[in-house]
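Homework help board

Subject: predicted structure for assignment chain

Our instructor gave us this sequence and asked us to write out the predicted structure in token form, then describe one feature. I got the tokens but I'm not sure how to describe them. Can anyone check?
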Amino acid sequence: MTDTTAPKRLTYILNYLSADDAQHFVHIPNLLSQMERLGWTVELVSERGGNGQAEILGRRVTFLSKTSRWRRAFALVIYLLAMRRRGGRLVFIRISKFPALVSALMGRMFGWQTVFWISGAVEDYNLRRGLRARVELAAMWLLFRLVDRLATGPETMVEYYGVRYRLPASKIMLLYNDIDVEAASPANYSKKTGMTVLLVHRLSPVRETDRYFPALIKALGRHARDSGVSVAFEICGDGPERDDLERLAKCASEGVTVRFHGSVPQRQLDEYYRQADLFVMPSYREGFPRVMIEAMARGLPIVATDAGGTRDLCGPMQQRFVVDREDPIAFGEAIEKLLAASAQRRALADENLRSVQRFATPEVARMYDRALSALIAARPSA
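My token output:
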């Protein structure tokens, strides 16, 4: 017998939340508020960032601990048991593996379900670390079997995890990232002379941006030389790869200015998006690149690699500027072509504004509502 009257209660756990952070978790409170409009009661929990409770971005957040991992683990156990006593039967965990493992094991004993969201095709990179990476891979394989559902997106990543970890289709739940399209400010195309190219990403070795940087810098230089128009290349993000990229940027031609801004809080990124003429995503590994839908929501044309699920996000015209991740030269050529074609940039901008609507927060909230409601309804009644 299934429980067709199960209350729509959700405990949502992420690893860190701060209004001033440069990570993408700041969009989650808005998504959860949209879910509450659909009848859900939601508790939001952050592993790190504080102690006790606080209000962040209009939502009450419970912090497990800002000190050691073991304190957080103990606080998590206590919180989950209290959650179950309050009638909770569904825990959704974003990216953090250890809380997902704890919740999955406890849920089997105390009667709740655990959904674990993750997106990223990084296993080939991780395996370079030898034995430790293989142990971690085995742990991930086990975790995926302990949780009740693995949630991921976009569509390519569903297939990736199914094949890579030999998971049945019934185990995997398709859930998108979301974007507040109403709050996104459109790019300002009538602002200035010169061209602005924008990159927003953590500069991590996993992405291997240095593969594409020489071709990218050369493409900007050729455009500046041939058109007589200066190019500003703005880079928002920090990470271990920054020093290498700064060294490569010194080869920029006259007419090209490269600026590294470091980590920029999400609420301050809008100004960089508004000033851009073109968005670039030079990345060898991705899952569901949220920066893509951020750029689409601002009406920006994009040049990207086909890493992870990038192609799934784009319309037909934009897909022509999603190049083979193995071809850095093609990446540079695509940038040079778009910089020289204002009409095509406009057409891509219009298409991206239409395509991004399926990732609008209310649409994604309904997607969550359908998937999670079906999950709790299918659970045998207690």
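Reply (TA_rk): Your tokens look well-formed. For the description, you could write something like this. The longest helix spans residues 361-378. That's the kind of observation they're looking for.
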